[in-house]
Amino acid sequence: MASVLFVVSEEGYWGEECIDPLQTLSETDADIDVATPSGGPPVVDERSIDPENVGEETAERVKEAHENDQRLQNPMPIAKADPEMYDAVVFPGGHGTEWDVNQDRHARALLREIVEREDGGKAMVVCHAVGLLAFARDSDGGFLVAGRDVTGFPNEWEEGIVDDDDCMPDGRKLPYWVEDEVKAAGANWDAELDSDTSVTTDGDLITGRGPESSHAAAMALVEALGTTPPA
């Protein structure tokens, strides 16, 4: 049985990017835990449960899971997570990750220790959480993402969300753009903007572009782990 840790934002995770992979992996024989930066319950981005943005079905599915899944209601602090206990770590996206998960030293260490482990740990990183790769270092001090093929939330999409001062609709100033920072860290970036979905697997690292790619990324992780696939 595979053991998987989800690391979820307390500043605003994007619903589908967390709930779809969480439920997909729950349909396998994987054992799943949840962590947040402080150990408080994760916070869902309100835009990702707005039926006008995501449709009635997705909005209801996310809200139900967010409110009732006990794993989400009772997370551990990232600092308390032992990477040796997990075969994989999942970082769902959402703009909120830029203010907490991506800047968390324990999250970066967790990512590094899992993917560098000799027994082949896996990491799945989606959307804005891909920004974590711009700050994570390997054990030699180099950028963990240098030379790796990745996808993630593209600048072209960000342009349609923030204003000229890089402020979000809720007024928060976006600290950086994911594509810029990850490319600066040496990644081979391709968000495949002409494709409906974009998932890239480079060894132990699986990246997904955004909400519509989260299920495909989860299925790639299921395959990489060799767990029993969902029916």
Description:
There is one protein chain. With 231 residues, the chain is an alpha/beta fold. It has one domain (3-225): Class I glutamine amidotransferase (GATase) domain (Rossmann fold, 3-Layer(aba) Sandwich). It is 29% helix and 15% strand. The chain has helices at 15-26, 51-54, 56-68, 70-73, 105-115, 155-158, 178-184, 214-225; strands at residues 3-7, 31-36, 76-77, 88-91, 122-126, 149-150, 188-189, 199-202, 205-208. Helix 1 links the parallel strand 1 (3-7) and strand 2 (31-36). Helix 1 packs across helix 3 and helix 1 (15-26) packs parallel to helix 8. The protein is globular. The chain starts with a strand and ends in a 6-residue tail after the last helix. The model has no long low-confidence stretch (mean pLDDT 96).
Compile the SSE list and pairings.
Elements: E1 3-7, H1 15-26, E2 31-36, H2 51-54, H3 56-68, H4 70-73, E3 76-77, E4 88-91, H5 105-115, E5 122-126, E6 149-150, H6 155-158, H7 178-184, E7 188-189, E8 199-202, E9 205-208, H8 214-225
Parallel strand pairs: 1-2, 1-4, 2-3, 4-5, 5-9, 6-7
Antiparallel strand pairs: 8-9
CATH topology: Rossmann fold
Largest sheet: 7 strands, mixed
User: If helices are DSSP runs of H or I spanning 4 or more residues, what is the number of helices?
Assistant: 8
Radius of gyration from CA coordinates: 16 Å
Short description:
With 231 residues, the protein is of the alpha/beta class. It contains eight helices and nine strands.
